[in-house]
């Protein structure tokens, strides 16, 4: 599969009219639509084999029954009914799944809003204030530093910083700002959001930067010449033109945070529910259909959010 | 979660390379349940699936030296080991797993019981496994999935556990231990003697419990019983009402801010304790050792209600037969012959055959680890690092005292499905 992709990539320049290679000189008998299919084919096959087919399996299995040690391939809604257990009986209190999703969505929103804010300004700085290409590259690479360490190490590293006896707390106590260490710095929603923002701002920076760098500088000059203030230029020129980047970055961040359970688990002291955590617990208990049902629910909700976002901006058109 | 798969040797990798794309496609579509393997005439290779507990490099090296059998470790967490047995029974030869998972594994028919008559040391296996008592005759608590309840099968291909001894053994015992709460004596500054202290408001925001439902619920039950709120008929097999009650007590404590964090990973438990984020928590023996080796006071505190115990052993995949099965017997026999047992004892675990392990240990080591006597000399770990200075006494004392004080065993309950749901609710509360 890798081979064919390479071959296609090598062949494709030859298919562009007038590129002057030996291939273009030969009369070609392949129809343009066939060539398009050929080019898109490998990706489609990968997508089919590694995404669509497994996804279909997940949906099928989510409607199976199970016992302690095996899947029972008979139709059953048990995975779903178990998941929504108590949702009507416990009203007006929220059931487990309701609470879990409310929490997940809250974390997701906070992380999205903060990464968007930080990511936008970092991208703005890189695109408009850093003139040299080399510096732009160098500074973007700096944003990847959080990814250089393993997940577990990264998490554990927060303890000496934010912990009860950590740097921040001992610093604050010494300066006399507080008398007792702040407990909410670690193993709290605060620390979860902090860790997620620290990790995923990069996913906002890259697409927004990519959109901004392609904004025609003469548009900004024109706005300036027409008497627009800095804020007006930002709101009426830059933000609308950076929209595709904003939406793509948002999709990255939202999908990752919705499914995350490792960061939320470690930084939340395993005391904060996450949609992904439910799936993990179920899988570990060998309750695959229930896990699959939860995965389908998570997928549906994430898909809904993404659909709403792409309603706001038509990415295909903008690209 | 540490899901590391270590493989040694290249035969499988080379084979896979040739068919990588095909295998990848098939694996992706779920068509493959295990890796193919090459039968080699020259080297005796066994793929060994288990948790990191028994999988020392020294053990595999010594085994190769003594028997010519090359062990390829496949390391996974307890949950992942079980998952792999269910879904990829052909991906391993020898299985090292815990007794409580047998309730899931045996009905699946994916493992082969071993023949007790082919295990040379079988009659010397500690009575902890066979009779439920210590060598000194102390009766051991049998709540939960105690090994002697699931040690034998009725027949070779039977899926039923036999009530009396047969020659078909589900798991040949290897290693076990008695777990309890770990504490920071330097921060607590008073004696701790009961599981109920975990919920003592004195330690608000400084307690922790493990977030592995099947083990966490047992610790929770020990706590609930210690507070005097309820007495279980069998902590390891609760009714739905009992699960509700247990989770209610724990949820109230959680909402009141009793717990600093839950832990799931060995290193997490070490870090929580070492950093002083927690001062009392469920813990495993090697984690306590690790905290202590950092120069921080940490005690594996014996408690009056007793220990929660676990045990593991060997069986083979149902796909193993012929010469390979003979190697598996050879390996298991080697494992019980002393070197490995001594190695495990020196880590603070217990070996299944005590006599052979004793022969491989120095008398002062045996006195410290097994007899609860003060160390005559410095106590060293298998890798040579210093564990305890001369004069130290093991927490909990002797083998008799520790194993004799076991109250319950890690378990899979009949209401496991319900318990897991309630556990999720507890985390979300």
Automatic annotation (TrEMBL), chain B:
PROSITE patterns: TAT. Transmembrane segments: none annotated. It comes from the Bacteria. InterPro entries: SBP (IPR006059), TAT_signal (IPR006311). Keywords: Periplasm, Signal. This is Spermidine/putrescine transport system substrate-binding protein. It comes from Bradyrhizobium ottawaense.
């Amino acid at each position: 599969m890798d081979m064919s992709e390479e071959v296609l990539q090598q062949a494709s320049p030859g298919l562009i009219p007038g590129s002057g290679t030996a291939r273009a000189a030969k009369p070609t008998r392949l129809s343009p639509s066939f060539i398009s299919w050929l080019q898109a084919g490998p990706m489609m096959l990968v997508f089919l084999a590694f995404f669509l087919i497994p996804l279909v399996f997940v949906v099928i299995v989510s409607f199976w029954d199970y016992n302690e040690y095996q899947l029972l391939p008979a139709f059953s809604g048990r995975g779903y009914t178990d998941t929504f257990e108590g949702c009507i009986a416990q009203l007006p209190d929220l059931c487990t799944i309701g609470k879990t999703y409310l929490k997940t969505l809250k974390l997701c929103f906070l992380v999205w809003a903060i990464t968007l804010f930080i990511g936008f300004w970092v991208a703005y700085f890189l695109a408009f204030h850093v003139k040299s290409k080399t510096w732009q590259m160098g500074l973007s690479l700096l944003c990847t530093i959080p990814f250089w360490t393993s997940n577990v190490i990264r998490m554990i590293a927060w303890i000496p910083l934010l912990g009860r006896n950590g740097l921040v707390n001992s610093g604050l106590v010494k300066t006399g700002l507080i008398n007792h260490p702040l407990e909410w710095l670690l193993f709290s929603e605060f620390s979860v959001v902090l860790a997620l923002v620290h990790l995923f701002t990069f996913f906002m920076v890259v697409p927004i930067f990519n959109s901004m760098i392609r904004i025609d500088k003469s548009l900004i000059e024109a706005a300036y010449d027409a008497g627009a203030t800095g804020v007006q230029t930002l709101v009426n020129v830059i933000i609308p033109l950076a929209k595709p980047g904003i939406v793509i970055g948002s999709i990255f961040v939202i999908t990752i945070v919705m499914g995350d359970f490792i960061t939320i688990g470690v930084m939340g002291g395993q005391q904060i529910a996450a949609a992904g955590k439910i799936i993990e617990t179920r899988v570990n208990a060998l309750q695959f259909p229930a896990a699959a049902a939860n995965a389908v629910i998570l997928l549906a909700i994430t898909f809904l959010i993404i659909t709403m976002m792409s309603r706001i901006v038509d990415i295909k058109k903008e690209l | 979660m540490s899901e590391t798969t270590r493989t040694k040797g290249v035969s499988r990798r080379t084979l896979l390379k040739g068919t990588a794309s095909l295998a990848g496609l098939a694996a992706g579509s779920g068509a493959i349940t295990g890796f193919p393997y090459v039968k080699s005439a020259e080297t005796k290779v066994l793929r060994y699936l288990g948790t990191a507990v028994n999988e020392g490099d020294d053990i595999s090296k010594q085994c190769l030296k003594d028997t010519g059998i090359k062990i390829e470790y496949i390391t996974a967490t307890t949950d992942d080991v079980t998952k792999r047995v269910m879904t990829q029974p052909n991906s391993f030869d020898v299985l090292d797993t815990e007794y409580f998972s047998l309730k899931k594994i045996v009905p699946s028919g994916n493992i082969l019981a071993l023949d007790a008559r082919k295990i040379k040391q079988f009659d010397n296996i500690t009575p902890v496994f066979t009779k439920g008592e210590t060598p000194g005759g102390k009766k051991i608590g049998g709540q939960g999935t105690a090994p002697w309840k699931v040690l034998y099968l009725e027949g070779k291909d039977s899926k039923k556990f036999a009530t009396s001894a047969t020659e078909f053994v589900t798991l040949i015992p290897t290693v076990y231990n008695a777990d309890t709460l770990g504490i920071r004596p330097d921060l607590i500054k008073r004696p701790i003697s009961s599981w109920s202290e975990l919920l003592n408001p004195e330690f608000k925001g400084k307690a922790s419990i493990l977030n592995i439902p099947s083990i966490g619920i047992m610790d929770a039950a020990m706590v609930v019983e210690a507070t005097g709120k309820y007495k279980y008929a069998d902590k390891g097999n609760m009714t739905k009402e009992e699960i509700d009650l247990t989770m209610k007590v724990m949820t109230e404590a959680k909402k009141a801010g009793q717990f600093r964090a839950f832990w799931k990973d060995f290193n997490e438990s070490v870090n929580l304790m070492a950093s002083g984020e927690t001062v009392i928590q469920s813990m495993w023996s090697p984690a306590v050792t690790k905290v202590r080796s950092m120069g921080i006071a940490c005690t594996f505190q014996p408690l009056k209600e007793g220990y929660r115990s676990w045990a593991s052993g060997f069986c083979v995949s149902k796909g193993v037969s012929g010469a390979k099965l003979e190697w598996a017997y050879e390996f298991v026999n080697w494992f019980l012959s002393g070197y490995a047992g001594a190695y495990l004892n020196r880590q603070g675990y217990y070996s299944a055959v005590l006599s052979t392990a004793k022969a491989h240990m120095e008398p002062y080591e045996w006195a410290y680890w097994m007899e609860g006597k003060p160390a005559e000399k410095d106590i060293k770990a298998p890798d040579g690092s210093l564990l305890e200075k001369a004069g130290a006494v093991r927490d909990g004392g002797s083998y008799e005292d520790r194993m004799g004080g076991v109250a319950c065993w890690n378990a899979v309950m009949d209401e496991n499905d319900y318990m897991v749901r309630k556990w999720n609710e507890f985390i979300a509360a």
